[in-house]
Amino acid sequence: MQITKQNMVMRYALFHMFFLLSLAVAPPSNAATNNTKPGCQSRCGNVDIPYPFGIGPYCSMNVDFNIDCNISINPPKPYLSFVNSNDTYVHYLEVINISKSQIYVKNSELQLARSCYGMPTNNNTVNHSTRLDFFATPYTLSDANQLTVVGCEDLAVVRQFSNLTHIYGGIGCLSFCTDTLSIGTCPSWGCCQTNISKTDFLYVTLFDMQTIGRRDSRYLPCSLASVGMIGDLGNFIFNLSDLDDSTAFLKNNKEFMDRPLVLDWRIDPFSNCNKTSCGKNSVCNNWDFLYGGYQCRCMEGYEGNPYLGCQGYF
Ligand SMILES: *[C@@H]1O[C@H](CO)[C@@H](O)[C@H](O)[C@H]1NC(C)=O
Ligand SMILES: *[C@@H]1O[C@H](CO)[C@@H](O)[C@H](O)[C@H]1NC(C)=O
Fold this sequence. Notes:
- The chain is mainly beta.
- The chain is 10% helix and 38% strand.
- The chain has helices spanning 5-25, 108-111, 246-252, and strands at 43-44, 47-48, 54-55, 66-70, 77-83, 90-98, 102-106, 112-116, 129-133, 139-141, 145-150, 154-162, 167-175, 183-185, 191-196, 201-208, 222-229, 237-239, 261-265, 282-286, 294-298, 302-305, 309-312.
């Protein structure tokens, strides 16, 4: 067939029609995929709350994923609260963000231990221990956390164990000072840092070693320890004289207390994948065999929230 001008115009028009039609039919690339149950709020303040997390008991998968959105603060802030295996010990954590397998939280009192003048048996000491207990919850401390201890000749003893697997571990972190310096730096003089491996129970106790060392205990008597994300106190510098008074230390060094804690999450530590675990077009993966539980993810070529169901995309 001879290609005439008219023919070409025709083809051109047809091509355009096709092009426009395909645009109209293709779903917008940023099609909103459901990340919450129908009728549920997807955000609290600036934080996205993806299912299985949810604001209120109807919107979350179960009570362990229940988010309390405090709207009396501006912007509103989400909180997570749950009870551990003993049903006695409640964690109340501010939520910073939630990803597919981790949640960043914050509770500065819970993450902090402080002690002045002494050993834990001494009546003068207050709050010399930190106890983070995630037994029988969907959460564990991830391996992205670190312990930072500031003090002069002070020892933090870290004990961690898992109730389910009976794996125990312990480390110590000892911070030293020198009389010739007035500035403490991390991880160097006056500061000790150590990484914490994944665990569902962490117990940190502070001991003052000055009484058995060369100095008397009146020399910069306070020590503090905090658990939080690796790297956020990487360049921490402080005046050693702040160790005279732990309240003054915290006032002058707010970043020591205000740290995110990184938790791993999964569904139900006491069950494995079964047929009904995950939503449409998703697959189930058993979690770490040491800790139990499972997570869902969308099948190849699908996207969305794997707990609610995934959709195919083009
Ligand atoms: C969550 O918050 C932490 C701490 O601020 C940050 O380092 C991390 O990149 C954030 N993650 C996401 C997915 O936004
Ligand atoms: C000890 O910790 C509790 C809560 O964990 C807190 O209310 C109290 O103010 C702390 N005391 C001191 C002296 O830091």
